[in-house]
Amino acid sequence: MKKIRVLIVDDSATMRKLIRTAISADPRIDVVAEASDAREARDAVNLHAPDVMTLDIEMPNMSGLEFLERLMRHRPMPVVMISTLTRQGSAAAVEALALGAVECIEKPRYGNAQDTFEKLIEAICVAANARVKDAAVTPHVARVQSGQTYQKICLIGGSTGAVDAIERILSRFPADCPPTMITQHMPAPFLASFAARLDPIVKPHVTLAENGRPLRAGEVVLAPGGDFHLELGPEGTPVTRLLQSPPVSGHRPSVDVMFRSALSHAPRVVAAILTGMGRDGADGLTALRDAGAVTLGQSKDSCVVFGMPRVAGEMGGVSEWVDLEDMGDRILALAATAPRSAAHGG
Question: Is 74 a catalytic residue?
Fold first, then answer.
């Protein structure tokens, strides 16, 4: 079996040794090089052609975030951030994910080192199979107002790689976009930081969902995570609901929970499943399509991890495959059409 070639980038020699010792114990991983700053990292990438890079945020001369941005523009590759600054809720962690990092792991603290390194090994293995795209394309920014009357509710679910995808999709949405709900697999503090990041850079108002709040045009609500799943209330005026219950499909918030909650609204729904590991959302998307919703899957070539969309497609839950660069416009076009009166026939 071919081992995953890893480059460790951290300005601390002690931390590099800890990371090397921990991940080298996994038979799937081969640490091919170390670097203490961005210049050494650049040279190591060119010399060793690693499959995955672990990257610190705090480094001398050039920060890890600045180096990550340059790397994704000039030589895109899978990166896992590991830093004291990528702790839960950190804006730096969300910025790293938006720049294209596959995952963000907090550096080990006293008492949690084993758990941290287990997460790091898992993240490296996921990253090794990720499709990382050139991030040099600046997303088109939508008009302030579309003047369009949207007749459908939009539901979007994603996981690994979907932070950047969601930003790109919402960059196409106008200020009067269709009512939109998003479930993204992240810890609650990350989701709060994600909403805070999105709101000033896109035209619609982006916020964390609140229980019992009407879902309105021009608003995008994110599942807050933590102890809660995000649901769409039953028939009538669309209302967001927060459901406190155990994880579903291995996740909380769960995409399946959000999709299934919208079944009574299905003819008025456009649902999209984005890049991510596993199968969360596949069952719910299939049920939505059977009930009359329009269902979209992010295309394989534009996914970082073609997991959730693949399973949904195999189940017959995807009515249309769409490249990421076209997803925002396609959602808007479908949301402007009249509600479907019947379920699909196959």
Answer: no
